[in-house]
Design goal:
By secondary structure, this protein is an all-alpha fold. The chain has 8 helices and no strands. Helix 6 runs antiparallel to helix 7. The termini are far apart.
Length: 150
């Protein structure tokens, strides 16, 4: 890279307004977050759950994203950290209230914590969002039965 072309790119960047620089920074953060998400997915599949969680959390430090919160929840569930998984799902659902994986994971963690009424509420929302998914209907029935026995 020549000194002139490098200097030219610096001058071009400096001549751009703050909106353009902010957009470029967001794109850079999004690319890095996607790389970290892919790293986390790879680590999770290999059973390195703590490292996967760390990668997802680093990605979340760059961009707020419901899917990344959901991925954190999945890792936290594998670590049996269900209270934290519920919180991660809460954050995902704040960003996307119809994110089915977050509802599914929060329902599962609520069940693991013995909070069957909360699980019923999540599974009811899932069934309302995707009424043809028999798995969701089954989970709702199981959660209702568990809520009645406690």
């Amino acid at each position: 890279v020549s000194t002139q072309s490098t200097w030219g790119s610096v001058v071009a960047r400096e001549g751009q307004g703050p909106e353009v620089r902010a957009a470029m920074s967001q794109q850079t953060n999004a690319r890095r977050a996607n790389q970290l998400k892919a790293t986390g997915n790879e680590r999770l599949m290999k059973g390195n759950t703590e490292a996967a969680l760390k990668a997802y959390q680093q990605a979340l430090g760059l961009v707020p994203c419901a899917v990344l919160h959901g991925n954190c929840a999945a890792a936290l569930q594998k670590l049996q950290r269900h209270r934290e998984a519920v919180a991660a799902c809460d954050q995902a659902l704040e960003l996307n209230e119809t994110y089915c994986k977050a509802l599914l994971r929060r329902g599962a963690s609520s069940t693991a914590l013995g909070e069957h009424t909360a699980a019923v509420a999540d599974y009811e929302r899932l069934v309302a969002l995707e009424p043809n998914r028999s798995e969701y209907t089954r989970l709702l029935q199981e959660a209702r039965a568990a809520a009645q026995t406690t």
